[in-house]
Amino acid sequence: MEASSTENQFPTPRQIMSVAAKLYLRPLASILLIGSAWVGAGMWILLLQEPLMAVVAFLALSIVEIISQIMARGDVATFGPLTRANALLCSLAAAFLMGPMNLPFLLQVVIMFGALCVGLYFTLIFRRLLRNTSLPPIILPYTVLAAMMAILLPHGMSNSAQYFGWPVVEVVSFIDLPGVFLKTMGGFLYSPWLLSGAVISVLIFVWSPAMFLAGMIGWIVGALTSMGLVTSGLDPYWPPASYNFFLSGMALGAVFFLPGLRGMVIAAFAGMICALFAAVLRVYAGPSGIVYFPIPFGLTLISGILALDNPAFAPGLRRNLDWFERPEDAWIKDAWTRRRWGEQGELLAIPLVGPVAVVQGFDSKPSHRGAWKHALDFQRPLVAPGERRGRPSLFGEPVYSPAIGEVVETRNNVADNPPGKANYGDNWGNYLVLRTGAGNHVLLAHFMQGSIAVAPRQWVDYTTYLGAVGNSGRSTVSHLHMQVQAGSEPGAPTKPFRLANYHTFGGE
Amino acid sequence: MEASSTENQFPTPRQIMSVAAKLYLRPLASILLIGSAWVGAGMWILLLQEPLMAVVAFLALSIVEIISQIMARGDVATFGPLTRANALLCSLAAAFLMGPMNLPFLLQVVIMFGALCVGLYFTLIFRRLLRNTSLPPIILPYTVLAAMMAILLPHGMSNSAQYFGWPVVEVVSFIDLPGVFLKTMGGFLYSPWLLSGAVISVLIFVWSPAMFLAGMIGWIVGALTSMGLVTSGLDPYWPPASYNFFLSGMALGAVFFLPGLRGMVIAAFAGMICALFAAVLRVYAGPSGIVYFPIPFGLTLISGILALDNPAFAPGLRRNLDWFERPEDAWIKDAWTRRRWGEQGELLAIPLVGPVAVVQGFDSKPSHRGAWKHALDFQRPLVAPGERRGRPSLFGEPVYSPAIGEVVETRNNVADNPPGKANYGDNWGNYLVLRTGAGNHVLLAHFMQGSIAVAPRQWVDYTTYLGAVGNSGRSTVSHLHMQVQAGSEPGAPTKPFRLANYHTFGGE
Amino acid sequence: MEASSTENQFPTPRQIMSVAAKLYLRPLASILLIGSAWVGAGMWILLLQEPLMAVVAFLALSIVEIISQIMARGDVATFGPLTRANALLCSLAAAFLMGPMNLPFLLQVVIMFGALCVGLYFTLIFRRLLRNTSLPPIILPYTVLAAMMAILLPHGMSNSAQYFGWPVVEVVSFIDLPGVFLKTMGGFLYSPWLLSGAVISVLIFVWSPAMFLAGMIGWIVGALTSMGLVTSGLDPYWPPASYNFFLSGMALGAVFFLPGLRGMVIAAFAGMICALFAAVLRVYAGPSGIVYFPIPFGLTLISGILALDNPAFAPGLRRNLDWFERPEDAWIKDAWTRRRWGEQGELLAIPLVGPVAVVQGFDSKPSHRGAWKHALDFQRPLVAPGERRGRPSLFGEPVYSPAIGEVVETRNNVADNPPGKANYGDNWGNYLVLRTGAGNHVLLAHFMQGSIAVAPRQWVDYTTYLGAVGNSGRSTVSHLHMQVQAGSEPGAPTKPFRLANYHTFGGE
After folding, report:
1. What is the per-residue pLDDT for A505?
2. Dihedral, CA atoms, C460, C463, C466, C471, nearest 10 degrees?
3. How far apart are the C-alpha atoms of C91 and C106, rounded to whole Å?
4. In this predicted structure, what is the pLDDT of residue B224?
5. Nearest-CA neighbor of A405 among A377, A433, A435?
6. Interface test with C, best of A151, A284, A288 (most C CBs within 10 A)
7. How far is the C-alpha of C211 from the C-alpha of C330, rounded, in Å?
8. Rg (Cα) of chain C, in Å, rounded?
9. Which of B308, B325, B355 is the C-terminal boundary of a domain?
10. What is the pLDDT of residue B25?
């Protein structure tokens, strides 16, 4: 807060909005796997229908922030939206289940606070357990707490549903399905009514049509599977739990994997698997109502990511690791990234230290074209996005080896150009060529004169210092050129390669 | 398929057999942890007794292959026999449980197809979960699906057993045991009759007497344990589940660990543990019949490998990682391997790149004898097994350091011999001696003249280039000689060592 | 045993005591997470009240030792006290549950032996599963066996409690709590009587007041939580299980984390969580009595360590990895360690091989003071504690790089001093300065003349040989001086740093 530097200044409306978004809006939206504060605002309006729940939600999110501030002494990361959402859901579940119990007010407060603390506790545990995996701890803490509460209060769910006047959801024919769909969508916020469901559907659709489509597919297939099980003689009272099918299709088909045709097939499969899990859980756990918590979704999500996130399987299925973005945006970014610096070939480390930008990528103007299209030019990133001049210079910065290999050829005696001038006589300036273990040749070019510190036949590793960035050869500004070649001669036709440690960041 | 190069050619009988073995025979045999297509053929004949099951099995394995082909675009690995066996078992279980349900035919087909897909899905999950462990995903996917079906259809197993006319299995006295044994062995293929069991027993015995013996021991101890539990007042109706005891003893006593006396003790223990698991599961899961699926075997296998695969425990107990081989063959190979290049001492990396063969191992003729017996000579492997002349030359190939250490001594000026001639004056030719962190000395010998690229006092790591393979000294063909010595003088008495990254391959 | 060298010598009383402590006393004490043989002796006296249990315990621990000796061929580690305690508890549980069953004596012996073997088996499994985690396998093997027995004998616990005449424990008002507390403390040893509980309480208090305090806090909060649940209408018959609350508070508040004010807060939270787990388990598992085994404690311990052992969370909460020590001693050692060589800043490897001692630490006399306080002097440790002269010399020993970085400056031409003399003209003697990736400078000083093997601009890694330890500059005995500086000039003001691989050992 810049406000704290002057004493008498009130926070600006913008600051208040930003804090509200972080503390109250995004956590609510992240229940739908959405990162938008606007969607969160829409959900708050829905939540106000049930004023008691809204009060509980507000208090819960406030308490989480207080705990976060208490624990954040030092430079410790505070809670993210998912952690907040889990604590919120735990408090709401406690409030919901306590509805018909007529406990003293103070005891209710203690129990809700306890549920919130236990929710945070389980969040810490799952964050730790899933630390080195690619699995999100999404809904698991809430799920465990819900399971515990369902065991302690075996009829809590049905009592509460009656107490809050929840409608009975029946499926007699296909004509009932739209109504069931909207009611179960309302169930996300403990309000299984047509209007709530419609609003939530619109919110999701406006945020991301891909997510809505994948969710719909998951729901339809899940509903059909459940109706098939009913035909087989089972009786899983599935409709209220069916928002799980929507969540499963949406999560696997569009959120955790990039959306696309393949994603729609996966959404359908996710809906089927989720319906099976729900049926098994319904029969196993009996009338406890535990299935109406998002446990089938949690099982489908975890098992789906484990089964599908496998590079040797389903080529072309791509994880979306920054899943709070709109899936459509993530898809575009991924497509652009692959066009810019490849997804196959030799895996090279970035040979520079600190942040770098690829200022000229694969198959791009002016010079990475034709047989030389698989080449990258590195510079420092812009200091501020949009400010074209704001690049710190790389001149003199150390270059480390991008691979394990043997030095094949070096040149070290080309003078560096003054900024803005290029030396068209010596295209590559000072350069070196490495031969990697895979038999490819890596050309690094435009080194500073006299800086190359390795010699032919020398073996280099990722920590080997090769030389310093310069501005020699056909270069008007200090940068490092890297390409992978089929042959050892500088300028031989290039081959695609990948970068091991490049992360995109905004703007470029 | 070479056939595809000419258009009008039909597949040869040999090609048909090979495809049949892969698609239909081996998957069935691998239910018994056997890699032989012949055993699979025998089991198919048994399966034909129950024509419906045979049809289901044939369709299931065909569909798996179709899915495998669809998913195999690019260079993706297709399903192995275990994955196919799991999908097969899932389909058979679905068919078995649906027997008495009188569902419409189309629904039956859909359910069997769904069971197959879910089986493949769980196989993917378990392959991922167990990826970095030494545990096989053997029977777990099938087990999870079976558990789900047992929950959905709590009386499915007993209804189906009645429907298919399965005999009641009673144990009144020890005299009943042989009959129980044969019937439960038939249970492997959903046909618990004396003849089926006898045929399966013979198939296993002919493939590997060690497996049969370990299985028998496991079964006997498991049966005695179960009878003891009955005497204690419990009533686990154990006989139909007792093929689990056989599988457990066989798997832990002979398949996943190399067979031997120790293996027989382990087989007995495995039988006891499996009987306990079966009894607990029987009491816990009540009359659901889930215990008659191979869940007790799965628990015993996983827990047994976790408990026993511990280098600090049970010295001499050796894992068999290539467990589709006959255990007897694996045992012989292991014994030969240990004699050839040791199992103790300094752990060295192979200092060469690409495939290599140990052409003269520990304690072997003509020169690795007596005090110099712990030495290895590396060459390239034969191009084709049996073709003695077909070794590509190593001459000039780079040698990297086999250890982290310091160079102690080098010699670089001995001329390389013409092929077939040896220089008896300079025994080691061009060589170098490293001192490792553990204080041992490694001698590498017969380098190419002038190729040694390191100098005394220099520290080397696994990626350090040391020189090139040559034919100097007492050597008639280019090869690399490596030994670990007690002292630094070339030719000091040798000590045993191990190779970190050597894998045997056929023929040598 | 030195006794074995002369033939006619009997073991001395001291030897007998030492064996008894290892085989019989410490395993019993480790049930209370205590490493003291004296506490174990006190518990044996208590155990003698119930002679049958004492006989079982004695036999069980003897058999464990026999198995340990059989399996210990070669240089294999034998069982530690926790493994023995688990096997002991398994046997005691079997004996307890078999009490009212009137089985033939031989069958009883077989069952107890089986329980012991299964206990050891599960210990091996959990040791393997938790191998690379920071979780102790404490009570889990016993817990799994207890759960299996509770399933097999659903009324075993209540029958046995009746059979052994256990008192019913009721809580009507707060006045009952002290009695409940003492009875449940007696439950540790299957003797829930006031006197047993009082003795156990005294034993814990005398060993470590911090442990007792944390346990009390856990118990009180757990009891209040349970009473709150009773008020909410649940009926977890919690008193007999409440030793779990004590164990949980003690384990998390004082044993596995260093005790302190923060530990007392954690103990309270642990008591609450444990009470919740116990209530859920009680309701879930019904009247099986499984909750009276330490399962709630196991769940609380594992989840608590997972949630709290997080460097990014709860700064200042410190694990106690050597948790068999008295917590107070561990706390003192930790505080002393941090004062001596820091807990923040650059993480460096010890640049020497073999055991080393820090003979002058941070902010210590005579020379690591003021701006130069963050410096360490390394020598070899004393050969025998207390023997001041007994340090082997480091002279000539190799020095490796403590970090990845670039050499900035070296000096190599200062003569080494004769022992006892110092060269005040060249303060640092032969030295080198590295610049690390984090931008700090590391000064290593007092090298042997002419030994420095690296040059400025050279990049070094942890395996790079830098030079040899000497006695040049202001040094009277061969040692290595290491400090981290804000600037590159030797003698620039120092910054705190940490050592990556230093382990304290006795005496220094």
Report:
1. 39
2. 140
3. 15
4. 93
5. A435
6. A151
7. 12
8. 28
9. B308
10. 92
What residues contact C387, with CB distance under 8 A and at least 6 apart? none
Q: What is the CATH number of the domain that holds B291?
A: 1.10.3430.10
Contact list in A for residue B111 (CB cut-off 8 A) is: 232
**Looking at residue A429, what is its pLDDT?**
92
Quick check: C151 and B303 CB within 8 A? Answer: no
**DSSP character string of B16-67:** HHHHHIIIIIHHHHGGGT---HHHHHHHHHHHTTSHHHHHHHHHHHHHHHHH
CB A382 within 8 A of CB A397: no
Q: What's the average model confidence in pLDDT over B335-347? A: 64
Residues B247, B393 within the same domain: no
**Confidence (pLDDT) at B503:** 47
Give the tens place of pLDDT for each residue, B116-131. 999 988 988 888 888 7
Q: Which residues contact C87 (CB under 8 A, 6 or more apart)?
A: C60, C61, C64, C79, C116, C119, C120, C123
Whether the CB-CB separation of A177 and A223 falls below 8 Å is answered with yes
Model confidence at A75, pLDDT cuts 50, 70, 90, reads: very low
Residues of B in contact with C76 (CB under 8 A): 312-313, 315
- Where on the phi/psi map is residue B322: left (φ > 0), alpha (ψ -120 to 50), or beta? beta
Confidence check: pLDDT of B158 > 60: yes
CATH value at residue A427: 2.70.70.10
H-only helix segments in C140-208? 140-152, 156-163, 177-186, 194-207
Based on the fold, state whether residues B260 and B378 are members of the same structural domain. Answer: no
A4 pLDDT band, cuts 50/70/90, is very low
Out of B260, B282, B308, pick the residue that ends a domain. B308
Q: Do A151 and C284 touch (CB under 8 A)?
A: yes
Q: What is the pLDDT of residues C171-195, one digit of tens each?
A: 778 888 999 999 999 888 888 888 8
CA distance A123 to A143: 11
> What residue numbers bound the domain in which C424 lies?
346-499
Q: Chain C residues contacting A, CB < 8 Å?
A: 228-229, 231-234, 269, 272-273, 276, 279-280, 283-284, 303, 306-310, 312-315, 404, 406, 437, 457-459, 461
Q: What is the ipTM of this complex?
A: 0.72
Residue B376 lies inside a defined structural domain of this protein: yes
Residue in B101, B151, B464 closest to A459 by CB = B464
Nearest chain B CA: its distance from C410 CA (Å)? 19
Tell me if C295 is assigned to some domain: no
Which residues are CB-contacts of C361 (< 8 A; sequence separation ≥ 6)?
A: C339, C340, C341, C368, C376
Q: Given the structure tokens 């490049």, which residue do they identify?
A: A502
Confidence of residue B364 (pLDDT cuts 50, 70, 90): confident
Q: Which residues pair with B431 in a beta bridge?
A: B411, B445
Q: How confident is the model at residue B3 (pLDDT cuts 50, 70, 90)?
A: very low
Contact between B494 and B373 under an 8 Å Cβ cutoff? The reply is yes
- In this predicted structure, which of A199-213, B139-153, B189-203 has the lowest mean pLDDT? B139-153
Whether residue A192 is contained in a domain is answered as: no
The total domain count for chain B is 2
DSSP tag of C11: P
Stretches in chain C below the pLDDT threshold 50: 1-7, 74-76, 503-508
**Whose CA is closest to C120, among C48, C61, C177?**
C61
Structure confidence by residue, pLDDT tens digits, A345-382: 677 878 887 777 788 877 777 778 777 788 888 888 77
Do B203 and B78 share a structural domain? yes
Which residue is associated with the tokens 């694990």? Answer: C319
A475 within domain boundaries? yes
Average pLDDT over residues A412-439: 86
Q: What's the rounded Cα separation, in Å, for the pair A382 and A394?
A: 12
DSSP H or E stretch at residue B346: strand B346-348
Distance CA C87, CA C110 (A): 15
